[in-house]
Amino acid sequence: MILAVLLIAVQVAAQDPRLDRLDPDTRAQVTAVVDSARLAGLPAEPLIQRALEGATKGAPGPRIVTAVRRLSVDLGTARAALGDGASVPELEAGVAALRAGATPQVLANLHSVRRPPLTMALSVLADLVASGVPADSAAVAVLALAPKARDADLVEFRRAVERDIALGAPPAAATSIRVNAGADVLNAAGPPPPGPALPRRP
Amino acid sequence: MRTLALIALACGAPADVHRLVAQVAANIEAGISDVRYDGFLASGAASVSPTIRWEHPGGRGLLSARGTYLRFESGRHSLDGSANGSWFRPLARQWRGELGVSAGSSQYANIASFSHSEAGARLHLMDDERGGWVGATVGRSIFSGAPRRVIVVAAGVWLLRRDRTMFVSFDRSFVGETVYTDVRSSGRWQRAGIMLEGIVGARIWSRGGGRGVFGEGSATVPLGSDAALVLSAGRYPTDAVSGSIAGRYVTAAVRVGTIRVRKPDTHGQPSDSPVRRRSDSAPVAPETRLAIQVRRDDVLLTVHAPGATAVEISGDFTDWQPVPLSRNTADDESWARTFRISSGIHRINVRRDGGAWLVPGGTRRSADDYDGEVGIFVVP
């Protein structure tokens, strides 16, 4: 009983002041989810940010709580796949990949074939799916390139695929072609040009 | 408007068309355009397009060929050519059959190349002033050496009047793994020698082909017996068969030669850019693009927002509080600010002039859990 009271006291004391933007009921529920995540060893900051995002966008309280809970579950899934040593950015990128359609097994395979950090590889995977590449094809492509490619290579690969898609190539075919031409892509890819990546003229 | 010409021919449109038009018609068109392909900056371009066309004296068929040379501000150019032919055969009563073939090839700056070849058949049912058709086309499209199967099934109805023509069509295209449906309605109106043409349509039920509405319009104003001024503008969707990517354009051109009515074409093939397709109808600010410059101690975020009087951003690096950006002193169309942003994946929305929160170009669009969308970017 005393321990429980102490725990509650600690939780209240640890409540993030940024969550004051939420109404009291929503704040209490979000805080409970955040505290549960902390106890499970999951990062709190992404959860707080998701709640703040909802507040800024005028989402109703229950919707914010649902979003935070869902993110907490996804962070747990990502950590299970990527291992306890996964960093916060890796977990967030893992969630993005999962939500794009990658399976936890794909994340685990990526973890086994590539040295950390995996943030960029996971982000490229999510980008490819967002570009219309079927999740399976995107996963196969990233896993094929992951062991040797640098982060910059992966970014260049993603740009090449997106360019091909924009020119009308079917997303899966564009990905396959670029993976098969991986040697050219990787060898030709120099460091990214300095300065902001503003769109070019045709 | 090849379809409109085909309607006339399918009807057997004997008298009016063939008395006025020579059996062989040729012209060349030179113009200037302002084009904005999806994912690219707007660019000026100069174009030259020769066209030649032969029609069977009895209205049984046609052959046509067309080429376009397009040179952009950057000095890059695109070159494309295509040819097609159709042959009509009377069937029972009001029915006619049509067999057609087409082929084309295009190249952009030695970077991207396309080619395609197709053959198709249509069955027309026609009255004097109205009709319809169903048809199918098969072929293949080759992009950078990789062939894809092309299948298109289509149906349409049309209405023909003395000075105007209208049609509505529905086609479903299968190009490799890309699948989409286009619904279009087009009209042509002629009065006092001036020809107005317009088309509106929508791409729906798409997988990999983009979605959205499009529309194009043109006016052809005779400048004499052998010349005309052609003004056109519009937005067109990506054509997965020929390789033209979606974009907008405004064109002014002079046509010299046998003056006929047809659709001006400024579809080129840009490449070599961090392109992101604009394929959805969700809120997007295509004129608002984010650039990220990682510096030693901070990150410079620059939002390219032509025409904006105020730009704000909100993201997980601002605790989702709106933060105004400062207009770039060197570039009136850009707004910038530095932030302390940690390495990793981040979420952002952009607002122009106090309007809705939008996803800026240059980021990955993603559902935001709140019935909206958010842009995602990575800081290395």
Describe the fold and architecture.
- In chain A, 70% of the residues lie in helices and 0% in strands.
- Chain A has 202 residues and is mostly helical.
- Chain A has two domains: 19-82, no CATH class; 85-191.
- In chain A, α4 crosses α5, α4 crosses α6 (104-113) and α5 (88-100) packs parallel to α7.
- The longest helix of chain A has 22 residues, at 61-82.
- The radius of gyration of chain A is 20 Å and the shape is elongated.
- The relative contact order of chain A is 0.07.
- Mean pLDDT of chain A is 80; it is low at 5-10 and 183-200.
- Chain B is 4% helix and 63% strand.
Which tags fit this structure?
heterodimer, A: 202 residues, mainly alpha, 11 helices, elongated, B: 380 residues, mainly beta, Porin, Immunoglobulin-like, 14-stranded antiparallel β-barrel, ten-stranded mixed sheet, 4% helix
